[in-house]
Amino acid sequence: MMSLSRVQRALIWKETRQVLPLVYMLAGVTFFLMFLWGWIGTNLPAMGSISIVFLTMPAFYAAGVGAILIGQEKETETMQWVSALPLNASDVVRSKIIVALGGLSVMWCAALLGVLVMEPLRSRSATAMFPEPIWLSLSFWIIHSVYLTLCGFYASWRSQSVFTGLIIALAMACIPYIVGQFTTWVYTELASTYATDRVTLTFTGFWSIVGIAVVAVMGTRAASRELGPADAPRLFPTSSSPNADRHEHTALNQYSPPKIQDRPSHPFRYSVATLVWQSVNYNRRLLTGLAIMVLVGIASIPISSSTLVYRDGADELGVIVVLLAGLSVCWLGVLAFHGDGSSAAMRFLADRGISPSQAWWGRHLVGFAIIATATVVYILLQRLIVSGIGAGNDSVNQNLAASSPMPSALALIMLLVTAYGVSQWISQVLRILAGTAFLAPLLSAVCVYWLGSCWITMGTPIWLLGLIIVIPLLATFVQMARHMDGPRTIGFLSTHTLAIIAVFGLPYLWCWYETRSFPSISAERYAEMKQLSEERGLPVKQAYSLHRLPTPYEVLTENQVTELPTAKVVEALESVGDRPEDWFAINGAKDSPLKADYAFITDSVATTELMQVRWLDSLHQPDESSVRSRENFVRWVDFVTSIAKRLRLNWRIQEQCYADHIEIALTRMLVHPETQRLWDEKAVVDAIMMLGDQTSRSQARRGAVLTSWHQFHNDPEMRRNHSLGGYEVSWLLESKPSLQVDWLTDPAANRISSELLQLIDAGERGESTLPYRRALAQLTLGQPTLQSDDNFEISPYSDSLQSTLYGDHLATQYGFPGCQWYAVWESEAKKLAERFRNANDSDVDAKQQGTSSDES
Question: Where would you tag: which of 169, 205, 238, 562 has the fewest CB atoms within 10 A of its CB?
């Protein structure tokens, strides 16, 4: 007879071999989620910390190890073989406990090592999962994982179904939480204090330790009953009815042939209805419970969205019920291929000629029916709540009005089918029910998150999302024959690998297709623009800023805490001058570029217009104030003219557009008939000459476009910020999904720059700029294929804004480059300069004629 040590080592070796597949599966899922986390979560801060991936793996192991070591042996009837051996039952139980707790220790060590390597444990997201103090919360989670392991053992010993045992273990895992919360509430009420994380963790950890002791005793007794001698089989039926032997399983009628009238005409012909009946009757109670949870959870979505059930705690209860409904849908998918208890049933059907398609439909029709019923209930409740029961004004009808948005029926169907499809996919690929039951909800949530991010960040259309959702169902349908045969072949694994690639690759393929259809420029045009930027680009110099000076009142009241005398306040307010140097200061030399500032430039233009209004009003009452108003207006004209000239020296497109904004305002002010009185002022003459210099304006614009385009492709900071001459290209593409924006910035910058250059060429030749303005409107509005005239007319490039002297300065600020180039204001500016020259020439001729007469 073998010694106890050898027996114990043999049993531990056997149990370790059973647990290794679960460990391998959890390790593979961890690395997959790490890769997915880094891939999806790069631009999505909501993904949070990767610590969650590591810290949830021990919990999955604790929940599934009992089903692996006990439930799987029950299904394969290995437990009967072990109980028949000359072994002590305590040795069998002890070996399973040692392997389970040893594996849990290894999982926790690996999880903590992964957290410490990937990121500090005290990071923001890790702290959210483990409240202060860290050691207390971490100790609680380790203790609770031990409790969950023992709950899994007890549930597996007591239950004949692995899946039922898992559900019982999960329900038992919540007991310390519930009792701990209740104890915390009693403590806070008696002690008149607040419930802190430390108090809650202490009570919950205490009840987890108590639960470990209780569940250990219960599990030991359940194991003794399971491994003890079985009851002798009954030789005769217990019922006295004449048909009892037809229904009761006894040792005598176990192998007796059925009666003639009970023998079917086609003993090996199975219909889909037969397979559905078999699937339902094997898990009748479990399916009933899951169906109820799904229906109640889905029905609670529209009900909780209405004011009919609004009260304290209703939102939290609704969230819990909805999450349980999602979990139930995932478990329905798991039951599709694990509901019969073992994979032997699939081979049983295959040996009797059942087609893979029949077997597949037989496995899924129950889940499809439950999902369809829940969707119908949701639609009916949604319509009822949105429309109301009746047209009356009673309080019930008023409360039925929806108070928060509800997802559409299509969105609900897509969510349910995604959760079910991914779960049944996992249950076909992985044969370990203990791992599948917990991985299916996790991977379903990941897939739902992925599809949502595809819709938001990639612009994946609904029809393509629907196709991606169906891929898991198609994969299991195609591989049903190989699944029924049993072994995992290369073809089986290759098909599912291709399905995974399709799920994660099709959105990128669609995004690539959308970006490829975006209009760009040819390689020849790119080379031409590159050569032009080197020949005719503007020098990249330091640009100076326009600063606002503090007023005397602001200087007086700065850091002042006591009340000031009224006389000083009045004196400070009256000392504010109307000259530009009283309000603004410009750094740098007069021939250095100036950097645009929207607020200062608009304030300067507005102040200049105010000075003009004051001067025009003073013309009716000539006095000293009229002379002062004239001087102030001339000073401001000179000031904004100098700003416009220095803006033209800047190499960025945005500064050219701000210079246009100033010149539009000057044109509007100087075309006034009364301003002809100021034509003898040097500042006004300089402004008119600047407005009439179309050649210099075009050269500055062309140089700015070429230099901005060159800097966009060669300056790393501007390329990182998507800045094209001061305009953010990503903002111009805001109607596009975020990932497409990253791919479209280069072609959009190239196309915008090319259209601006062509617009300048057409303007210089005196041709119509409409085709290029329309192209710019299409690009900046994010609609490169836009052909509607109505949408074009409401854009900043429309003919209506081109034909006015009141340019859209907001369009200059918010990203519509060149919207006022070669508009009506430029022709008016040239006419103004031409009138000034003609008038000046007439004055010169008149002076010359007067001089000749005097000489005669």
Answer: 562
